[in-house]
Known about the structure:
The complex is a heterodimer of chains A (about 190) and B (about 400). Chain A has about 190 residues and is of the alpha+beta class. Helix content of chain A is about 30%, strand content about 30%. In chain A, helix 2 (about 85-110) packs across helix 3 and helix 2 (about 85-110) crosses helix 4 (about 170-175). Chain B has about 400 residues and is an alpha/beta fold. Chain B is built from ten helices and 20 strands. Chain B has helices spanning about 15-25, 40-45, 75-90, 175-185, 210-215, 230-235, 250-255, 280-305, 330, 390-410, and strands at about 1-10, 30, 95, 100-105, 110-115, 120-125, 135, 150, 165-170, 190, 200-205, 205, 260, 265-270, 270-275, 325, 325-330, 335-340, 345, 375. The two termini of chain B are about 25 Å apart.
Amino acid sequence: MSETMEATVRNGVPVDQLFGTINVVKSQRELAAFQFRASNQWVNGTHSRTMIEDFTGAGGVQQHGTEFVLDADHPAVLCGEDNGPSPVEYLLHALATCLTAGIANVAAARGIELTSVESRIEGDMDLQGILGLSDEVRNGYQAMRISFVVEGDAPAEQLEAIVAQSQARSAVFDVITNQVPVSIDVATK
Amino acid sequence: MRRTEALIIGAGQAGLAMSRHLTDRGIDHVVVDRGQVGERWRSERWDSLRLLTPNWQTRLPGWTYQGPDPDGFMTMGELAAHLAAYAVSFDAPVWEHTTVERVRPLDDGYEVVTDRATWHADNVVIATGACDVPLVPAAAAGLDPRIQQLTPTRYRNPDQLADGGVLVVGASASGIQIADELAAAGRYVALAVGSHTRLPRDYRGRDIQWWLDEIGVWDTDIADIRDVAAARRAPSLQLIGTPERRSIDLASLHARGVRMMGRLEMVDGTRIVAADSLADDVARSDRRLHRLLDRIDAHVEAAGTSHCLEEAERPEPIRLSTQLTALDLAIAGIRTVVWATGFRREYPWLDVDVCDAAGELIHHRGVTPAPGLFALGLPMLMRRNSTFIDGVGRDAAELAEHIHERAIALAA
């Protein structure tokens, strides 16, 4: 019974600030319009590099504290030089981190202290698709599976319910499981 | 127009106990109910509910539990059957499915208009029950319309609720039982806790209701209660009737994953803010608990029966590792709010000026300012157990005496 009037921070989530943010956005819906962006540059072979510096939202341009530089490559077995995870592995990373962030937020909002959240994520891919060996096989993942091990001060079914709620509000889960229109624009010089 | 000496509105335990006492005195009367005998127990309670009092403690005038399990707790179906059998036992003149539309004063008594017949009654006893209309705080109006709202009268079981978490407001018997059941079903439950009274199911090897009966708590007359108005507002005890005789309190709920917050202070869309009241209310509740157990121990001491009883083992203090100070229903994934915040009464069919500004009947010991108009089964009408199946009979006897005296006066 120690949390009284001080700002509540639970699972490292500043709960009051989180609720406050929602409240502000509720009264000014235009603040909810965000745009995330990244720049990418080909390095060599299958190796390219993404720079993530800023995004827009909450009424303006928001700078990341530092510019993030992310390398991606294909593994040697796929004729790359393994300078970074492959793009599809970034997708695994994106889904796992999105769900895990949601778990921390939902648990914090629900007053449940987490001690550990671990997950293992797998995606099955048949390369006959991207290698053009079969028109029947899709290019991307045929199935993805993520399994969580969650530990916290609540009974098992309550912890399971937190994961379910995180999934229900996950941006990456939504993007993967529901189509999103993608336009590709090309300029030449 | 039919003529009767007394018309009783409501065929629950109060109406039936009244009918039994009038029958015993040879006073002609009828009992009308908009539904069946014990209608609210049948249609306004959740599926798993059992009485909070043991079977032996359902002592109605001339009717006690005779079954094999006096220490058990009746289901709602069993209770409805118990009341129906009671009505049959003395051939109570019950008109079921008879809805009162209007009660208005006549020069000598009342005209009671129902959808089936109209009576001219010398006396009217309003026995429509304490748990009439759910009392929902005004703050409920500020709740996001996407959130499902329920009251205990409409709650049935966890499957009825939208998927996701639930905020239960109120920690009396209804609130904590519903929170407990939802959490056991795997739902996340947040519980807004105000003033409450914690009690163990058993103490020193006996049911707590046995003790409250034994030491005379339930029989306490309102004349001996310092602040009757406050006592009437007090929430019901944190008890549950289960075959395994378990106790229920904030600690048991917390262990199930229920998270507590203080009294609801503000509701704005999906945002809920709680008062910083939980620690104080928990401490007050524990103090009340120990005062009561002290009284029981003193009673045992005075009676010298300590050797026949189990050791005096006190419940552990309530410790909550976390509490919520604010809650966002959207972030927490809560899609239902259950308002377990008590009941009020309303009498829209009553054309007699005997209600206060809140719409409650004005009465002293069930006697309203209107001659021949009585109330029965209201909170602490005459004693602490006036709303209990076990207590309403004595109140009914007192009212039956009034009606009897009026009959003598009218005849003279």
